[in-house]
């Protein structure tokens, strides 16, 4: 009796184990059917470089967690340029690539509708070398405005003119992997056409400075600018009055034209000739 019970328990355990194995095999087979092969990077790909076949590979990826813009065909990546850095093992997405047919270099990195502009900097203006590619900066202009007061003070002002400007490159390098500060001679910025015009004018009327800002802070500064009076606590300068234009010179008096004397109209009459004399007579 005891032996039969033991055999029954062993048989039930074997059946449950067999069912668990079959269920696990089924789940694994269903999971394998729900994958898609996408392209991932097998090596670090730097910004602005051309994609090479040796740096790409097709791997299985769960279909339910497929990233938007994933590439499923290696042929679609022929002659494509990386717009941002792509790390090893990272999926190659369309959003990280320049438009098809774009050439390599910095031009492929500039976003659509934007422009790249380079400004000269020094170790102070360049935020002591901490303004690296991929960082965002604000741009200030320091200038002396026209006008002043009777004491000879000039109206100086420092104002943020552009905010949250992306640094594309420093000197001739656009690599974003370097995190060490570097003192450089020039910084290339990504700007809209309107911002390019403002920056070009700002650097011609005053001195520029860069201010490093938080990468994820989109809030505008909304400042009125700092003046010499506001910094030193001096009374504000009186507003500059517009100088009226000089009165136009009086026109020279033209010489009077001579009056035209019209002859008095003659009365109509009859001329009577008597011998050698002519005597006019009034008409009746």
Concise structural overview:
By secondary structure, the protein is of the alpha+beta class. Helices cover 18% and strands 27% of the residues.
Would you mind describing this structure in some detail?
With 284 residues, this protein is an alpha+beta fold. Among the domains are: 35-107, Type Iii Antifreeze Protein Isoform Hplc 12, CATH 3.90.1210.10; 115-232, no CATH class. It has helices at residues 2-33, 193-205, 228-232, and strands at 35-41, 56-62, 115-120, 136-148, 154-170, 186-191, 207-212, 226-227, 269-274, 277-282. The strands form three sheets. Strands 3, 4, 5, 6, 7 and 8 form a six-stranded antiparallel sheet that branches. A two-stranded antiparallel sheet has the order 1-2. A two-stranded antiparallel sheet has the order 9-10. β4 (136-148) and β5 form a beta hairpin. It is elongated, with a radius of gyration of 44 Å. The termini are far apart.
């Amino acid at each position: 009796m005891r032996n039969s019970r033991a055999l029954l328990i062993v048989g039930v355990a074997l059946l449950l184990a067999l069912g668990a194995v079959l269920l696990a095999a089924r789940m694994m087979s269903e999971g394998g059917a729900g994958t898609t092969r996408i392209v991932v990077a097998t090596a670090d790909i730097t910004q602005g470089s051309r994609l090479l076949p040796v740096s790409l590979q097709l791997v299985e990826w769960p279909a339910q967690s497929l990233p938007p813009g994933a590439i499923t065909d290696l042929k679609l990546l022929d002659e494509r340029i990386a717009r941002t850095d792509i790390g090893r093992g990272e999926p190659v997405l369309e959003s990280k690539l320049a438009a098809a047919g774009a050439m390599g270099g910095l031009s492929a990195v500039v976003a659509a509708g934007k422009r790249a502009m380079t400004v000269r900097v020094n170790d102070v203006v360049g935020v002591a070398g901490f303004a690296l590619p991929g960082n965002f900066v604000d741009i200030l202009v320091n200038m002396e405005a026209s006008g002043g007061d009777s004491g000879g003070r000039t109206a100086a002002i420092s104002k943020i003119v552009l905010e949250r400007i992306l640094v594309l490159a420093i000197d001739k390098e656009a690599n974003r992997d370097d995190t060490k500060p570097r003192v450089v001679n020039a910084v290339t910025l990504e700007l809209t056409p309107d911002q390019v015009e403002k920056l070009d004018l700002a650097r011609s009327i005053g001195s520029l400075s860069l201010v490093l800002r938080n990468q994820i802070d989109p809030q505008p500064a909304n400042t009125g600018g700092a003046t010499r009076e506001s910094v030193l606590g001096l009374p504000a300068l009186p507003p500059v009055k517009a100088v009226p234009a000089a009165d136009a010179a009086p026109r020279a008096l033209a010489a009077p034209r001579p009056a035209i004397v019209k002859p008095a109209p003659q009365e109509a009459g009859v001329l009577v000739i008597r011998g050698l004399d002519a005597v006019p007579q009034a008409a009746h």
